[in-house]
Amino acid sequence: MKSAPTRKAQTRPHRSDAFEAIHGAAAALHAVGVIDKKTMREFDESCFSPPSLTARDVLRIRNKENLSQEVLARYMGITKSTVVKWESAYNIPSPMAQRLLKVIDEQGIDAIAHGAGRRTGGV
């Protein structure tokens, strides 16, 4: 019998062995319907370490997509100086910004570009 595919979040490292055990128990409860999807997402967020992108990662992602600091900043809804600070390791991206950068890294800038800075619909 084939096992169900693992959730993507499970590829992230757990904060500790204790969090890994807690998450495993919660995942089992979710699998049998005792824990709903929203609660399981909360366990994911509390048990897994947030993605950790370095200054080199930010620069690599930006260069891979052939974007200037200004253009990346516009797509992400931040300032150019924020991107500069990330790439110089003066600051690190927030967890939400890291998630967005991971999407860009994995799916390309087009994954967030559609609709960025544009309004759709009638006048």
From TrEMBL:
This is Helix-turn-helix domain-containing protein. Residues 58-112 form the HTH cro/C1-type domain. It holds the Pfam family HTH_3. Keywords: DNA-binding, Transcription, Transcription regulation. PROSITE patterns: HTH_CROC1 (PS50943). It comes from the Bacteria. The keyword DNA-binding applies.
